[in-house]
Amino acid sequence: MDKRLPPLADKATRLARNRRFRALGIPYKACGRCFAVKPLSAFKRHTRYGHQSWCKACQRETKSTYSKETEYTKRNTKRRERFATDPEFREGEGKRVKEYRARRVAATIEDFTTADLHALWLEEGFLTLVTGGFLCVYCGREKAQHDDHIQPLSKGGEHSRANLAPACARCNGRKWAKDPVEWVATHVLTRGPNVT
Ligand SMILES: [Zn+2]
Ligand SMILES: [Zn+2]
After folding, report:
1. Ligand 2 centroid to 166 CA: how many Å?
2. How many angstroms is it from 140 CA to the middle of ligand 2?
3. Closest ligand to 137 CA?
4. Ligand 2 centre and the CA of 184: distance in Å?
5. Residue 5 carries which DSSP code?
6. pLDDT (average), residues 104-125
7. Residues near 190 by Cβ (< 8 Å), separated by ≥ 6?
């Protein structure tokens, strides 16, 4: 660390100091930007964590924080719009996110599209609804809203078509509330002729 910086520039030291202030009921706090120790009234309230880490003066000085935030919001809004209107973008993003989750637990990842997945489900005899979409394989009653990993990724399951099944939100949630492996073992996947 640069020798010219005050000791409180070190985040761990500063946070320890602030914790100590709090523990002793001393209404002061070290700012995370200018590192000055100021009374709590010099900091804006934070909804959940007491006070914000930068003092009001520092916040005023960095108006750019605000514009950065609006920039981010704008980008986010654009993405949402595209997500709602562009099916190709939606498909790509969904695939990206699912693969990212699978990579995080070092699961084997198969390269497939939603169309590939649905084709296999039809081949395997998963039930479809007249109104479109698949029936939940676990309860056989609700419309499926999720692609459920039968063997969870966290338990060594693959992110592959063979390990995915259509599940409703309720069953998907219930499955996670229990031991997923045990849950699957006690639930026979619903298969049969398509509902017409
Ligand atoms: Zn400050
Ligand atoms: Zn269900």
Report:
1. 9
2. 6
3. 2
4. 12
5. S
6. 91
7. 126, 127, 135, 136, 137, 138, 139, 140
Q: How far is CA 153 from CA 18, 92, 103, 156, in A?
A: 41, 20, 9, 5
Cα(135) to ligand 2 centroid in Å equals 8
Ligand nearest to the CA of 32: 1
Longest dimension (CA), the chain: 77
Q: Is residue 174 pLDDT above 70, yes or no?
A: yes
Say how far apart CA 170 and CA 9 lie, in whole Å: 49
Q: How far is the CA of 47 from the centre of ligand 1 (A)?
A: 19
Is 165 in contact with 134 (CB distance < 8 Å)? Answer: no
Detail the DSSP E strand segments found in the chain: 28-30, 37-39, 43-46, 50-55, 146-149, 164-167
pLDDT in tens, 53-76: 999 999 888 766 566 667 778 888
Cα 180 from Cα 78, distance rounded (Å): 37
CA of 139 to the centre of ligand 2 (A): 4
The pLDDT mean for the chain works out to 84
Specify the pTM: 0.55
Residue 185 Cα to ligand 2 midpoint, Å, equals 15
| pLDDT at site 193 | 45
